[in-house]
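Illustration: Type III polyketide synthase.
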Amino acid sequence: MSVKIQSVAKALPPYTRTTQDIFPFLDIWLSGQEERFVKKVKKIFENAGVDNRYGIMGPKDVFTKTSFEEKNNIYMREAVALGKACLQNALHKAHLQPADIDFIITVSCTGIMIPSMDAYLINDLQLRQDIVRLPVTEMGCAAGVSGIIYAKKMLQANPGKRAAVIAVESPTATFQLDDFSMANIVSAAIFGDGAACAILSSYEQDPGPEIIGEEMYHFYDADYLMGFHLSNTGLKMVLDVEVPEKIEAHFGDIIHPFLAKHQLTIEDIDHLIFHPGGKKIISLVEDLFRTMGKKLDDTKEILRLYGNMSSATVLYVLERFMDRQLPKGDKGLMLSFGPGFSAQRILLQW
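Result:
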């Protein structure tokens, strides 16, 4: 019994700015800092590989001192709106109705809400009263792939069902105005807000690439690399400089044994559907794959157009491939990294 990804669709927050548009706000934020430090921060923004980003708040509100409660209230309101919009868009692409969804998995790590987003979507869209809910938090950037893995396992055990995986993130809601650490600055330079939904199906007749393999890979003793610290001012970014180095050290173990289980090598993979963690990580992965003729053009383009939107970003990359008419038999490898530290992998076949 096969499980396929039937459709993928995104939803964009209401505010958008280019990186150049943000510089006047940086000048205000950094006023009083040493000139050398200001130049360094601007250089980080210029070299981040992000030309544009979207947000649930405009730059003025992001750079205004507000409480954790105030920003989280905006997150709650906008997360529900974005989750509803991307689910509706994915349903439209798949020619489905809200009542056609049997499982709903919502993923987010950039705000806190109880009841979780899925409860509001059940009410707003009149989803089935017996729908099975799974809200996933604390998985960070990996959660878009994690959600699809969970959905696949649910559907594998339930033929003739469909699941919606909805990823909604607002890293701008976690920006710390009084924190001038490199972790806060780098995250501000590379992250943006966004939402995406993937609909999976275990109906044999439904179209879409089939999930033919999925696995998680957990790094030992690496929990310090990435995450959030819950402070009095909100979710404070934890982002260690060792992340690229750790990924490089483990990369072969992440990729090759997983493919070998399916009698494949990286040369058999036609499409790399990788989460754009940041320009440095993309360059690292491209260097590792360069001799094999593999490129990350779509990953780089998503980073350029939207920034890193945590868990939703890999679904933006996947949507680009889903919207193309790819040849039957083509294989794609999805990959994302997240707190823990972990790597999440999915093998697709069109």
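Reading the tokens back as a structure: The CA atoms of residues 158 and 271 lie 29 Å apart.
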